[in-house]
Structures are given as structure tokens and as C-alpha cells.
Design goal:
The chain is an alpha/beta fold. Helix content is 46%, strand content 21%. Helix 2 packs across helix 3, helix 4 packs across helix 15 and helix 7 packs antiparallel against helix 10. The longest helix has 25 residues. The structure holds zinc ion.
């Protein structure tokens, strides 16, 4: 008798050994494997271990069997350029508590076609690459990547710990053409900076959703809230978080100032061009908007020339630059004096866009001074950094079709969510 060495059988056994090593579940066995050369895929049949009861997906307790469903395919992490599928006939249980339900299997989740391990694998890549690139790299579809991210984010949101939030920042972000906004709430403490919440629109209701999520106990412990001057946000902070110091975001004030200056410059430029004057303001935009220390040497020369002219733009520029001194103060009282003096001076300037800012600053004087009362601990730099990341996320994952997908992507890349546990690292 000659014993024939059967390479395929040997390979199948080795494969099962490896699977038992990295993806083993009590109560189930890998029964057989099949490699389909034409389709370039591998099928691995799973069956319940003899005598082990199915787990009810309603109450997660063992329950007596009822029947089983037709074979279902679960996609696993591809190997050596070969797609890998698990085949399994889901059992239905007759649970004394829940009635007739399909069983829970440890490698899958609800109706997801992909195994948990593969979803976690894809979701991790989808944080490094765009979703489209992830789909292409692993020969799968954008929808499956989205599905994977949804699983990981849902798990993460259910399992994250929200306790003792000391400082938050709230900001809006524009996400589509037209005026579509999101409200983003971040935790901004030293050591913990993460996205806590995404809300549709930038209304009172959207920001209130965050406080509904965390509840009154946590809300009452918040000490600092950074925000811009958007009235609906200020309103919600007063209502829900009155004990917290509301700090107006420095970045937004500077941005408003730059916008006003730019308005003055553009209007004056047009006026001068119409009157046939020498175009002294031509290409002056960045000289005026950048901080002097960030100018190139060419721009510095340009700015020096420009400042010789008695122009509205120049006066507005000088007021804007002077305003920057505010941030150097340490004492809220002195900062307040400076602010008052700057506002009076600006109100006399006859430069309407800046006068408008001075009025807004006067109106929000106390909130601006809170920045100094909080010992400048919570500048909006953190919020700004996170918001930039959010913008990158939105850009990188072009192909966002719905608000829901955008929400998932933001949580996925910014919320530092915990991940489903697994016993083996499929790096
Ligand atoms: Zn049950």
C-alpha cells in the first residue's frame, strides 16, 4: 500500500490550526476549508461544537434550539490576495424570555456581512486612508468600509466613558454647499482632547442635544466653555451650564477682525479704482491680514510703503494690529481697560465695519474678559486645531453622501473612541 501525501488536505488542516490560534470561539469549530481557484476565494465552513447551546440574541443567554436558517456568508480578513469567507447556518432559538430569535455568533454582529475582526481591521485603515483608498486597497466596496466604520463607532459610543468633563469647546463647521452647518462639541482639557458630540445645524436645539446626552449631573461639573459669539450657543451655555466660565474664543475674534479689515480694503480699492487713482492697494491683501512677524521680506517692504498713505485701510490695519496687544495682558482688569479704550477709539474712527466689531466686543465684554479670568488656560487654539482636523476628515472622505456618514467619519477620527476587544491583533 502506498500512502499518498495529499497536499490540499494538509494545507486545509494547517489553515484550521492557524484559525484556531487567532480566531477561536468556544462553542464552534472550523469544519473544513475550500479554495476556489477560479473565484480566487477561500470558504471556511463553521459548525456548532457538539452539545453547545446557541446563545439568544435577545437576552444573550443560552437557549434551546428551534431550527436553523440557510447558510450565510461572513467576510473575513483577506489573506495573500485571496478573499476569505466563513459559511455558517445560523440557528434559531426558542428562548423562554424572548421567543423565537436568531442566535448570536461571536464573530459576527447583527446583519453586518463582514466579520467583526474584518470590520475592525478596515475601520483602522479608514482612519489612516480615505474610505475610498481603503476600499481599493482591500478590494472591497466603499459601502463595506462605511459599514465597518459604523460598527466600530457604534460600539465605541456605547462603551466610551463620559465622566468628569471639566472644559468643553463648541464650534460650528460648514459641511456642504449652501449654508449647512454642524455643531461640534469637544472636550479640551490637558490630556483629554476629543470630540464628544456632533449635532446637525447650529441652533439652540442642536447644542442642547449635547446636554441631553451628558445629563444634568455632568453638565453641572463643567467649569469652562469656549465658544464663539454665536448667540444660540451663548444662550444654551447660560441655560445649561451657568456655573461655567464662558470664554470667548480668541481665534474667532481675530477672524472677525480680519474679515472687517478685508471689507474696508476691498471697498476702498474699488472706490480708488473708479476714481482713477494709483492702485496702491493692489495685491495688499495678505500684507494686511498676516501678522507682521509672518510676512516675507518682500511683503514687509510693501507694507511699509503702504503705511505711508493716509488711507482708511491703513487706519483700520493699525487698529487691528493694536488690538492684538489685548492678548498680552494677564489681569482681567487691565485687559478690560484696554478693551474699553480700543472700542472708544474705534467708535470714533468712522470705519463702519470696525465700528460694528467694537459694538459686538462691548456687548460681549465680560465673556472676552473670562479668557483672562481663566488665566488664559483655555484658549481656542485647541478647538481650532480639532476643527482643522474635522475639515481634513471631511475632505479626505469625499463621497460623503449623507449627514449620517459625515457624523460617523467625524466620530471615527476625532472622538478617540474605545474599540471592540479582540484576542488577536490582525495587524
Ligand atoms: Zn432570549
Amino acid at each position: 500500500m502506498v500512502e499518498v501525501f495529499d497536499a490540499e488536505t494538509f494545507f486545509a488542516m494547517e489553515l484550521i490550526t492557524i484559525l484556531n490560534h487567532c480566531h477561536h470561539f468556544r462553542g464552534f469549530v472550523y469544519q473544513s476549508t475550500r479554495f476556489d481557484r477560479d473565484e480566487n476565494l477561500m470558504e471556511i465552513v463553521i459548525r456548532p461544537r457538539q452539545g453547545s447551546a446557541a446563545i439568544c440574541s435577545g437576552c444573550h443567554h443560552p437557549a434551546p434550539g428551534y431550527d436553523h436558517l440557510p447558510e450565510r456568508r461572513f467576510e473575513f480578513i483577506p489573506l495573500w490576495g485571496i478573499l476569505v469567507f466563513f459559511l455558517y447556518c445560523m440557528r434559531r432559538v426558542n428562548c423562554p424570555t424572548c421567543g423565537i430569535l436568531v442566535e448570536d455568533v461571536p464573530w459576527g454582529q447583527g446583519k453586518h456581512q463582514l466579520t467583526k475582526a474584518y470590520m475592525l481591521f478596515l475601520a483602522r485603515w479608514a482612519r489612516k486612508l480615505s474610505w475610498k483608498e481603503t476600499a481599493e486597497s482591500f478590494h472591497t466596496s466603499w459601502d463595506k468600509v462605511c459599514d465597518a466604520v459604523e460598527y466600530v463607532v457604534t460600539w465605541g459610543l456605547e462603551h466610551r466613558v463620559l465622566d468628569s468633563i471639566r472644559a468643553i469647546g463648541v464650534d460650528e463647521i460648514q459641511y456642504a454647499k449652501g449654508h449647512k452647518y454642524l455643531t461640534l462639541v469637544y472636550q479640551i482639557e490637558a490630556g483629554v482632547t476629543r470630540l464628544l458630540w456632533v449635532g446637525k445645524e447650529r441652533t439652540i436645539e442642536s447644542f442642547e442635544g449635547f446636554f441631553t446626552l451628558i445629563g444634568t449631573r455632568l453638565a453641572s461639573q463643567i467649569e469652562f466653555v469656549c465658544s464663539d459669539m454665536w448667540e444660540p450657543y451663548l444662550h444654551v451655555i447660560r441655560e445649561k451650564c451657568s456655573q461655567a466660565l464662558n470664554i470667548l474664543d480668541r481665534f474667532h475674534i481675530v477672524a472677525k477682525m480680519n474679515k472687517a479689515l478685508d471689507e474696508v480694503r476691498a471697498a476702498e480699492y474699488r472706490r480708488m479704482a473708479q476714481a482713477g487713482y494709483e492702485p496702491v492697494l493692489k495685491k495688499s491683501r495678505w500684507c494686511l491680514l498676516k501678522r507682521p512677524e509672518n510676512l516675507t521680506s518682500k511683503q514687509k517692504v510693501r507694507l511699509r510703503d503702504l503705511l505711508r498713505f493716509n488711507l482708511k485701510t491703513v487706519r483700520a490695519y493699525l487698529l487691528k494690529e493694536e488690538f492684538q496687544q489685548l492678548w498680552d495682558y494677564d489681569s482681567p482688569a487691565w485687559a478690560g481697560k484696554f478693551l474699553d479704550q480700543w472700542c472708544s477709539q474705534t467708535m470714533r474712527s468712522r470705519i463702519e465695519p470696525l465700528k460694528k466689531i467694537a459694538r459686538t466686543l462691548r456687548q460681549h465684554r465680560e465673556l472676552i474678559l473670562n479668557y483672562f479670568r481663566a488665566q488664559k488656560l483655555f484658549s481656542s487654539g485647541v478647538v481650532e486645531g480639532l476643527n482643522n482636523k474635522a475639515k481634513v476628515t471631511m475632505r479626505k472622505s469625499y463621497g460623503f453622501r449623507t449627514y449620517r456618514v459625515l457624523e460617523l467619519a467625524l466620530y471615527h477620527s476625532l472622538a478617540k473612541l474605545p474599540e471592540p476587544e479582540q484576542t488577536h491583533e490582525f495587524f
